[in-house]
Structure formats: C-alpha cells, structure tokens
Design a protein that fits this description.
The chain has about 130 residues and is of the alpha/beta class.
Amino acid sequence: MNLSIISADKDLLDVDFIEKTTILAEKEGIDVLYLDFSSYESIEHVLTSTENTAFFEAIQSASKPTLLWFDNCDMLAPLNCDFTYRLRSVLTTRFDGVIQSVFIAKNESLKLMFTDSKAAFYQSSMRITCR
C-alpha cells in the first residue's frame, strides 16, 4: 500500500485535523509545509508567489521526511491544468519515500483528480475519507 499521496474530502474532516496532524508530524521530526490554494485567484498566482518557494522546493529536493498539505486544492482538478500533470510526475516518481502529500478538496474535485481515467493522478492516492 502506497501512502505517499493521500486525499481527503474537506467537508468530512474535523476542523482541526490539519493542525493536530501537523503537531504530531513535527513531534516526530517531520518537516511540514502547508499551501492553501483558496488564497489565490489562479494556479499561476500559486506558482509565482514567493511565499510558496519553500513548498515547491521541497517537492523537488526534500531530503528528510516531509509532509505537504495541498489544502483547498480544487483548482488542480480540471483536466486541462498542466501543472497538475507536472506535479504528478514529480510526486509519483520519487522513490525515496521522504515526501507525503495530502490533497484536501471538495468531493467532486477529488473524484475528478483521482478517479477520472484522464486525470493526472488517476488511481494515485489513498483516500482517507468516504461518502
């Protein structure tokens, strides 16, 4: 079972799930980086914002255990989002196991991202919430 990419329905998580999980991870010496996509108008703004530099650098070059939160990541769901395909290429080809990613979005977005056969992350995640 590969748990390097996890997905969760935003509406089914406890309000403090991210906070509590972050605290537990940090106690274990795991680096934690958080990105809330709802703070941005578009994927272009996410990618060009200097405040996200460490987040994207970790995807490429983290050398110690790292947890990445992709919160409210609904804008990654459309099938025409090129960035999602690039992201998948990086996350699914890292064999060192140091990156754990959690994608949190609305149920419909998660379905499009992970269960549509044309989607970048088709069958690439372990879902931790169910409707």
